[in-house]
Amino acid sequence: MRKLTYYLYSFLLSILLAGCTFTNTIEKDSDIKNNENGQEMTSFKPPQEVEEVQEQEVEIPEDPIETLMNDMTLNEKIGQLFIVDIQNDKEGNSIIEVNEEVKEKIIKYNVGGIILFRGNIQTKEQTTRLIKEMQSFSDIPLFIGVDEEGGMVSRVGVNSDITEVPFQEAFSIGKTGDVAAAYKEARRMGEVLKGLGFNLNFAPVADIYNNETNTVIGTRSFGKTQEEVTPMVISYAKGLLSQEVQPVLKHFPGHGNTEEDSHEGLAYVNKTKEELEKEELIPFIQAAKSGIDVLMRGHLLVKDVDEEYPATLSIKWFQYMQTLFDTKKLLMITDALNMGAVAENYDNGEAAVMSFLAGNDILLMPKDIAAAAEAILKAYEKGMISEERLNESVRKILSKKVERNILVIE
Fold first, then answer.
1. Is the pLDDT of residue 52 over 60?
2. Domain assignments of the chain as residue spans, ordered by start
3. Residue-wise over 3-13: b if at least 16 C-beta within 10 A, else e?
4. For residue 199, how far is the Cα from the chain centroid?
5. In terms of DSSP bridges, do strands 40-42 and 32-34 run parallel, antiparallel, or are they unpaired?
6. Do 239 and 186 contact (CB within 8 A), yes or no?
7. CA gap 224, 175 in Å, rounded
8. What is the 3-state secondary structure of 67-135?
9. Alpha helices in 198-298 (DSSP H)
10. CATH no., domain 64-403
11. What single-letter DSSP state applies at residue 162?
């Protein structure tokens, strides 16, 4: 609590004394009287005594997010950094209700979010119940995410029990050239997702489909040029936001020009920074300027920026991004850490620490949450991760949850 002390005594006294100043150099006889001792005295009354002003305490409310963070344990803060999947149980069956494995991830590891896949989503009632129950076990409300792009990447829209009309693919919407159509479709999608309990969608795809040999993006993109893609991405994202579903731009710095699939191994973008700045980066930069400030960094290697590490794990990429974005506000999420591009080259803990040190705030889908969380903890204890750095990411995560009305702080 800050204290503000107001010292008004001298100020008030100067005002009162100023009101009693003689304005005439020669006083009238009627203004002069004698006291009992024959001494002259004026008819002016002396200033009344000024009461001493007491110190006043003015309360300035603390930032509620800071208050919440001050009450969080170290493990709770580390947990907020992770969004995990619950696709299958130990027997390989799709998880459609909360079991002990799900409880452990939420309660023991204090995860910040959970992403659901098609196998987790059976019916409207089952999905709604699953999400509500998961939220009930978390002290801090969870990000509940999904990959719902429409078209070939659809977890919800292909389920006729949830929606009769599947969501359109991005490329088809882009060909209309109608940004209003993009907004309308995303708003419809957001309404369905929000109704089920989702509050985070890993869409829209901001990649540009400018390489005909690309098989991983293709019609998931809104078009083949930044002029086609940029306005569609912004309008689509705003459609999701209209339903309080947080969009996530992906896959920075652009997966549409690659030949490789980062699900299998590293994907390469054979362009210079200057070339990227004229094309691939524009949808991300312009969307961020319009307020769409959450993006996914892909497992993409651009030798002109970093010859050794993909954007997900690269400190050089983060330093470069600081020249493009306001990284104090931009919430950065890794692409899934269990994908081949990372999992085949780094162990769970190593990948988690590297990606966090590279400026990411949220680590998506580590293959082993126990190993990843332990690695972050050890890196903190060794001084590799500072308290300030950890708090910066946690603050951004909680702030975004407040902004989307996921977390309500009174």
1. no
2. 1-60, 64-403
3. eeeeeeeeeee
4. 12
5. antiparallel
6. yes
7. 10
8. HHHHCCCHHHHHHCCEEEECCECCCCCECCCCCHHHHHHHHHCCCCEEEECHHHCCCHHHHHHHHHHHH
9. 226-241, 273-278, 282-289
10. 3.20.20.300
11. T
Say if residues 275 and 264 touch (Cβ distance below 8 Å). Answer: no
Catalytic residue among 85, 147, 293, 335: 335
CA distance 152 to 310: 25
Q: Please indicate whether residue 335 is annotated as part of the active site.
A: yes
In this prediction the pTM is 0.84
What lies within 8 Å, CB to CB, of 291 at 6+ separation is none
Strand partners, 268: 301
45-54, 125-134, 159-168: which range is least confident on average?
45-54
Residues 6+ apart with CB under 8 A from 73: none
User: Which residue bears the tokens 């940004």?
Assistant: 179
| pLDDT tier for residue 169 given thresholds of 50, 70 and 90 | very high
Instruction: Give the pairing of strands 294-297 and 331-334.
Output: parallel
Nearest CA among 34, 161, 126, 112 for reference residue 397: 112
Query: Interhelix angle for 282-289 vs 226-241, to 10°?
Result: 40
Give the Cβ contact number of residue 21 at 10 Å. Answer: 7
Strand order of the β-sheet with 331-334 is: 249-252, 294-297, 331-334
Residue in the block written with tokens 């603050």: 395
Residue type, position 51, single letter: E
The residues pairing with 205 across neighbouring beta strands, listed in sequence order, are: 250
In which band, very low, low, confident or very high, does the pLDDT at 260 lie, cut at 50, 70 and 90?
A: confident
Q: What is the mean pLDDT of residues 105-132?
A: 98
- Catalytic, out of 178, 263, 304, 347: 263
Stretch (H or E) spanning 191: helix 179-196
Yes or no: say if 255 and 300 are a contact pair by the CB < 8 Å rule.
yes
Give the contacts of 90 (CB within 8 A, at least 6 positions apart): 101
Is residue 346 exposed (0-12), middle (13-18) or buried (19+ Cβ within 10 Å)?
middle
- β-pair type (32-34, 331-334): unpaired
Q: Is 37's pLDDT higher than 90?
A: no
- Known catalytic residue at 251: no
pLDDT of residue 46: 47
* Mean pLDDT value of segment 180-190: 98
Mean pLDDT for 140-149 is: 98
% of the chain residues with pLDDT over 70: 85
Token digits of residue 205: 């795809």
